[in-house]
Amino acid sequence: YPPCPKHPLLGSSQQVSLDTWIIAGLKGALVLDHPFKRSLYWCNVFPPAVYQQLSAFWLPPQVMHKDAKSGKSKQVSHRFAGARYKTSLQEFMKIPAVRGRRLWKNYDKGREIWRKVSTVLNSKEFVAALWEKMGLKRPWLFRDFRIQSDTAGSSGYSIGVHPDISKKIATMMFYLPSGDKAMQKRQAGDFGTCLHTREQYTKRSKYDGQSKCEHKFMFLPNSGYSFTVSKYSFHSVEPRKAANSGLRRTFMLNWYKAKWIN
Fold first, then answer.
1. What is the pTM of this model?
2. What is the pLDDT of residues 123-167, one digit of tens each?
3. Where does the chain have alpha helices with state H?
4. In what order do the strands lie in the sheet with 235-237?
5. Could you tell me which of 2, 39, 42, 177 has the fewest CB atoms within 10 Å of its CB?
6. How many other C-beta atoms are found inside a 10 Å radius of the C-beta of residue 79?
7. Straight-line distance from the first to the last Cα atom of the chain, in angstroms, rounded to the nearest whole number
């Protein structure tokens, strides 16, 4: 498990803006150039109070939709078809207020915190800091912002080893463990993302696409990772080991070379 570096502003008495906090954490992220180039990992992504709001106002299933395609993909086993609820931030923001309040009592508070966070993550300043940290030169043409809840499924949700589509330049995911402290402890090891070597990819299981991890980002509260996408950016999610690991809550941003809607 790569270590999660301390946020440079954590514990500081200095009052800073949300964008200053988030960008400072990104700049201080751990950089890995193995098993492929390049990936980042960092903790305390959001100020504690903001993270608490994101967790408290996590989108419920009624404002997302069941991902029936998940079981048809090459990465996700057919055993887990329908085990993911997801929505794009754009879809959620387009829900009319009257309908949103009918579906979810916390609609207004939820909409506001997700608006604040997405404004920073979609800003030119944040993307410029990410591109500099990653050493990227290619401009992006399209991006998406996805919010996802993966249920455990009958045998534990998993995603086989895969490199992502060639249209993608970079991907970024944030972890928001659910449940009590005991459950979050189980999730820390179970739900993290694995990175793989080329050899591990070639030796993946024909049954579920799984293979040995080279590195694994622990599924810690308020943590996140990012990596540049190439034909060698192999990654996966292992099947859960604990009997009850709860809900895997993540949200992610992707940047593409061309328009792509999944």
1. 0.92
2. 999 999 999 999 999 999 999 999 999 876 545 668 899 999 999
3. 18-27, 48-56, 89-93, 97-103, 107-121, 124-134, 181-190, 198-202
4. 159-162, 235-237, 193-195, 215-217
5. 2
6. 15
7. 30
